[in-house]
Specification:
Chain lengths: ~375, ~325
């Protein structure tokens, strides 16, 4: 066991830190601390420009293989990058869906032509992606989806509706799960289509959230088209592709959050000290408890990185989403208790950030698989309990 | 950065697991409720475990917390009726004060050194060659001790209220108590794992309404919640072992985290396991209560959740930095 970073790893950390310090300046400086989850609709154009800046610096696709145009960074290097990224309060990534979800899926299942067409613009930050999975009648039960694509010559013609589609308003592309098979039902006969957003058959209607923001949207497909060669993986065999993507959503791509969480908790401790809430032993205990839980999340992530123990780890890895979602919800609630009576009043400054945190964290236990769905999966897969 | 055990460490764990599976079934734990199990200490000594963290010139293996933490977890798994905490905690202290003869006797299982836990009890103090205690932040022997026997909720444990003439020695009290808390934490992780396993197995075989109760979401979610606690307690315990071995400046905070997490995991898992078992789990005849009672005693000993949370709280509120 060695819980310290090697000299080589520290050198990499220094490189990341230096680059961020030199580039988060000028117009980009005001993006610090903005655009994260719960704030994804802030400074979108500027954050896309920042994405391109990252791309020029070689900091996109860190986890991607060199063959896919990525950096092929080790897991430890990825963690270091994410920690430094959060420490510098660099903005939420506008390209995270392309980089974290679609890119790895194309790399795993795509044709050579698809890889050549789609991977480079994600790395360059010139094409933004959104994910067309959830529908009004297919939330936790994704296999109930109804969007349909029908073959017409060299095109698929798509009709249906997606919902809760993050960043749909600014995306050039959407990866859409649609029914393509005759007599398709449940997990059978679904395909994963890559669909251009800028066309007459696609209409995007933003959804206003509890926070007042509109980070996601309804997306209506009414005769939208995409060429037949824009299917990732086998036609009618898209369920497996979709599950692969979700594994990324629920797994490694959440690592960087912990560093953001650390910033949030630190800020809350400061507020508690400033307004005297920290003198309350109950508040202190809860701050300590959240601190411990956050550290444990980090330890679990670090343990996942150490390949040696891999045989023992899937149980812990599966629990990650459930754990951080609940942690973040609790942080939001503690933030309001730290504010005390002021929690009922909206003000600028710290309080404003805490209110946004509180409202946003009402969603953590719902999106990307509700706590209940997570628990069903863990019971069946990690504990081997019967269906 | 390598947060994993070595091949040798895992082999030692596996060897102990297979020997305990054979030698320490639940019937042996149950028997220890009636008659103290003196043989188990000797069996562990023969496997080198009692001397694992003694220096070589006291007949030991000269290993550290990273080497014994998985072994303590295994002993917890089977609720082994043996006082490992005192021995692993006091061994380095005996070495530090130069009591090598006594230490080597402890390593062979011939002698036992008791340690008063901060709650005021010392286990098996009547059979001890000496009783170590911490008073006012100093380590020392309790000489000419008077003992008052108490009855533990866990029938395998024999606690005594102890008092005596305090004879200070030159050893670090915090490190001593941290080691004890860490052994307890590791045992609690093992206890938790077994209680969860018992409940999962029971939920698969017990049928009501025409199906296994493990197919009901209400039951599944109870056990997933327990799994979650355990899965996140274990890394806290393992990291604390590394911090203790490397004299990390935050090692006490890391030990406190481990103890809090492991205690809560064990208490929580016990509650969930009992609920899933229903009435059968509440009987004396069924094994679950022996694991639960060990968990209750270990979670309140060597600093309870309140004590260790407070230690972490002071660190966090004072702006302490920790990666």
């Amino acid at each position: 066991m060695d819980m310290s970073f090697s000299a080589e790893e520290e050198l990499f950390r220094e490189e990341v830190r230096t680059w961020l310090g030199e580039h988060l300046v000028g117009d980009f400086a005001r993006l610090r601390g903005r655009g994260g989850l719960g704030d994804m609709d802030a400074f979108v154009e500027e954050r896309i420009a920042w994405e391109q800046e990252l791309g020029r610096g070689g900091w996109t696709g860190l986890a991607w293989s060199k063959e896919s145009g990525g950096r092929g960074a080790s897991l430890v290097e990825q963690v270091i990058f994410l920690e430094e990224y959060a420490r510098s309060r660099a903005p939420g990534r506008a390209g995270h869906i392309g980089e974290g979800l679609l890119g790895p899926t194309v790399a795993a299942f795509g044709t050579d032509a698809q890889k050549a067409r789609f991977l480079a613009p994600i790395l360059a930050g010139t094409e933004i992606w959104c994910q067309g999975y959830s529908e009004p009648n297919a939330g936790s039960d994704l296999a109930a989806l109804q969007t349909r694509a029908v073959r017409d010559g060299d095109n698929w013609v798509i009709d249906g509706q997606k919902v809760w589609t993050s960043l749909a308003m600014v995306s050039q592309w959407c990866f859409v799960l649609a029914r393509t098979g005759a007599g398709s039902s449940r997990h059978e006969g679904i395909s994963c289509l890559l669909v251009r957003m800028d066309q007459p058959g696609v209409r995007v209607v933003p959804i206003r959230q509890m926070t007042g923001n509109a980070e996601f949207a309804e997306v209506f497909f009414d005769g939208a088209t995409t060429p037949v060669d824009h299917v990732v993986g086998p036609v009618d065999g898209g369920w497996k592709v979709a599950m692969h993507t979700l594994a990324h959503e629920r797994g490694a791509s959440t690592l960087g959050q912990q560093a953001d969480f650390t910033n949030e908790l630190r800020a809350l401790v400061q507020v508690a000290k400033d307004n005297g809430a920290a003198n309350d032993p109950g508040i202190r205990d809860r701050l300590a408890e959240l601190w411990m839980r956050l550290k444990v999340m980090r330890l679990t992530a670090l343990r996942t990185l150490s390949a040696h123990d891999r045989g023992e780890l899937p149980r812990e890895a599966m629990i990650t989403k459930l754990f951080w979602a609940t942690w973040h919800r609790d942080l939001g609630e503690l933030a309001m208790d730290v504010l005390g009576p002021d929690a009922a009043v909206l003000r600028e400054g710290h309080d404003h950030d805490l209110h946004r945190l509180f409202l946003w964290t009402r969603s953590d236990t719902i999106y990307a698989g509700t706590n209940e769905i997570q628990k069903n999966l863990i019971a069946q897969r990690a504990l081997g309990m019967p269906r | 950065m390598r947060f994993s055990f070595t091949e040798e460490q895992r082999q030692m764990r596996d060897a102990l697991r297979s020997s305990l599976t054979e030698s320490c079934p639940s019937g042996r734990v149950r028997a220890a409720w009636k008659t103290p199990d003196a043989a188990l200490r000797i069996e562990l000594a023969e496997q080198g475990i009692l001397a694992i963290n003694l220096p070589e010139d006291a007949g030991g293996l000269g290993l550290g917390a990273q080497d014994w933490v998985l072994l303590a977890e295994e002993l917890g798994l089977v609720a082994a009726p043996v006082n490992l905490i005192e021995t692993l905690a006091t061994n380095p202290t005996l070495a530090a004060i130069g009591a090598l003869d006594l230490a080597s006797q402890v390593g062979t299982g011939a002698e036992f050194v008791a340690l008063e836990e901060p709650g005021g009890f010392a286990l098996d103090a009547d059979k001890a060659a000496g009783i170590l205690a911490v008073r006012d932040g100093r380590v020392g022997w309790l000489r000419d001790a008077t003992l008052i026997a108490e009855t533990s909720v866990d029938g395998t444990r024999r606690p005594f209220k102890v008092d005596g003439r305090f004879e200070a020695v030159d050893a670090d009290a915090t490190d001593l108590l941290d080691r004890a808390a860490l052994v307890a934490a590791a045992e609690l992780v093992g206890l938790s794992r077994r209680m969860l396993d018992l409940a999962v197995e029971y939920s698969k075989s017990r049928r009501q309404f025409g199906k296994p109760i493990g197919s009901f979401q209400a039951v599944q979610h109870h056990l997933v919640d327990a799994l979650q606690r355990i899965a996140f307690a274990a890394p806290a315990v393992y990291r604390a072992a590394w911090s203790v071995d490397t004299n990390h400046p935050n090692r006490s905070v890391h030990v406190s985290m481990a103890k809090v997490y492991a205690s809560e995991a064990a208490l929580f898992t016990g509650r969930k396991a009992l609920q899933v078992h229903g009435a059968i789990g509440y009987t004396f005849e069924y094994d679950l209560h022996m694991w639960m009672k060990r968990a209750w005693t270990l979670s309140s000993a060597w600093g309870d959740v309140r004590h260790h949370t407070d230690r972490v709280g002071q660190f966090v509120m004072s702006g302490g930095q920790d990666a």
